[in-house]
Input
Amino acid sequence: QVQLVESGGGLVQAEGSLRLSCAASGRAFSMNAMGWFRRAPGKEREFVATISGSGSNTYYADSVKGRFTISRDNAKNTVDLRMNSLKPEDTAVYYCAARNSRLIANKDDVYDYWGQGTQVTVSS
Output
């Protein structure tokens, strides 16, 4: 069982930056690929970024590519999402997720564990 706790959300102006963090419980964190997803008001949850268990592979949604960076620290059991050049359309609840595989994935139905989410609001 893996428990995930996100932090770092908040209110920021457009073109600003935020860093989200996700702390994971449990052993063998490097066995879990991690992902970030988001749900905007009135919309479906969507994929943002994913990172492999070792951290060597990453993949991003086109909408955030070049602006967001996912990273992980397996010694600390954490995964971060650095968000730059934020836009109002990035406003959403952001969720951290873990899957019982080291391989990256951009579909939410292959993730086994989810955090409670953290709100990110970008004002224009």
In short: The chain has no helices and eleven strands. The chain has a mean pLDDT of 97. The two ends are 40 Å apart (CA to CA).
